[in-house]
Known about the structure:
- The chain has helices at 13-22, 52-55, 70-73, 90-108, 111-119, 143-155, 181-186, 207-210, 230-238, 279-295, and strands at residues 2-7, 28-30, 40-46, 61-64, 83-85, 135-139, 158-163, 173-176, 190-193, 217-221, 242-247, 267-269.
- By secondary structure, it is of the alpha/beta class.
- It has a 7-stranded parallel sheet. Strands 2-1-3-4-5 form a 5-stranded parallel sheet, with helices on one face.
- Glyoxylic acid binds at residues 66-68, 277.
Amino acid sequence: MALVIVSETLQLQPWIAALKKAGPEVEILTQQEVKDPGKVEFALAWNHRPGICKEFPNLKTISSMGAGVDHLMKDPDIPQHIRIVRIIDPMLSQDMYEFVLALILSRMKNLRLFQEQQQQKVWKKKRYLRMGQLRVGIMGTGVIGHHVATALLKVGFNVLGWSRTEGQPSGYRKFFGQEQMKDFLNRTDILVCLLPLTPETKGILNRGHLTMLPAGAWVINVGRGGHVVDEELIEVIDSGHLDGASLDVFQEEPLSPQHPFWSHHKIQMTPHNASLTDPDSVAPQILENYYRTLRGEPLLNMVNREAGY
Ligand code: GLV
């Protein structure tokens, strides 16, 4: 039995080192190192080449290398009997909170504006906002979204949440389903998208929804690029309704140099860097699922393939 790591985009060395440290007895191979594909029962994957399952006839479990699994869901060749698991890690949730907080504070205190003014040697004050004056709407209150929501609440923001279906009670006001979307968006000054990407959430940041936000609202997308209808976001910003957007994720990554987001004055871009999985932090849970696979036991952090996350 062996564990294979497959990714077209990630540097695999830190992952191999972390897994070998946490489980020196486990045979850990890259795709190129596999001599006997029949031995591979567990795959750790991020942006793999579709068709991976065909290469490993005895594969039983695929673990995502991150919180998201949309990269796995879009591979039509993963048979139903293969179990898919994802990463749930407090460090990933905390990193996301810190990133979202940094973006919000930077905007409240006009830091981007002052950076531009510095470049032009302009000395000009501007009134800033305080935490209690802003309503932050978290779209997607799963593990990471809920952590971000409660942490923002704790430091003094007004927080509300929206999710597709009714979930656990929380310390902040929650809205559910399409029926309550308008009420949620109407009350949101800063919208933070932390949804998983599924056929239902694809394109959710569209003209119809974005114009339900109050005038002057701001959008932060740290979910997936597929949540945004790019031309409609630009249109709603250019109409003056939205004040701008911070985007960490894109339909195509890296984003093509021709894409209008790069040069849009009101769009702030970061390279899918909000919250990066730390291999040392997550190696133990990956290996735990590896051993459970060996023993035929229920796995941690199973993905509901029906729901897509
Ligand atoms: C990052 O995007 C992740 O899914 O962990």
